[in-house]
Amino acid sequence: MGRKWNNIKEKKASKDANTSRIYAKFGVEIYVAARRGEPDPESNQALKFVLERAKTYNVPKAIIDRAIEKAKGGGEENYSELQYEGFGPNGSMVIVDALTNNVNRTASDVRSAFTKNGGNLGVSGSVNYMFDKTAVFGITGKTAEETLELLMEADIEVRDILEEEDAVIVYAEPDEFHAVQQAFRQAGITEFTVAELTMLPQNYVELAPDAQVQFDKLIDALESLDDVQRVYHNVDSED
């Protein structure tokens, strides 16, 4: 199970190294969530979720406020949510979530990233079925046993709980995200090292060094696209 958290940490570290790009992507995601409902996180669960994620990435308040104000002002930009599925070297699988105001541009850019880096774009459903949508939280200051007891008292069943370095990682059903979050808050836990709805692979693959280099280039190319919000894969990146 540890490899799950390892890959999530790796993804966060990669994003932390590209903060300006990540902040811009969060700005779009916040704007879209605010436009599709009330621009108030207390009455808009989608917006509330995005803001919680933004907090774990230390997105500046100014960027958040600007995106919400833009939505309040009736911004004219319309975005579509898209998901692409594809394959990298040696049986690796990739899922790409995108938000775009130009579907043709995004499709072309994603396809190009795959073909130029040893991969190929698949059809809808070719990869998704090998991943499970999962709520994942990282907290500090408690043991796995204490965390399990806390969640059991709140009548919440989880998929898994493990201790990894200085954090406790909780994997839960996606529709339990807010219940888990609320249970933690009632216990006085308001800061999370990770608070995500993610796609975890059912099985992992390991790549030979040369294939790993090519795969890393593919992931970097996809994550560098402005329209791409998240990239998930099934490559075990543990040393």
UniProtKB/TrEMBL annotation:
Keywords assigned by UniProt, alphabetized: Cytoplasm, DNA-binding, Transcription, Transcription regulation
Cell location: Cytoplasm
Domain TACO1/YebC-like second and third: 79-235
Name of one Pfam family that matches: Transcrip_reg
GO molecular function, one term: DNA binding
InterPro entries (alphabetical): Integrase-like_N, TACO1_YebC-like_2nd/3rd_dom, TACO1_YebC_N, Transcrip_reg_TACO1-like, Transcrip_reg_TACO1-like_dom3, Transcrip_reg_TACO1_YeeN, YebC-like
Signal peptide (residue range): none
Start and end residues of each TACO1/YebC-like N-terminal domain: 3-74
Protein name stated in the entry: Probable transcriptional regulatory protein ACFSUF_17580
Record has Transcription regulation as a keyword: yes
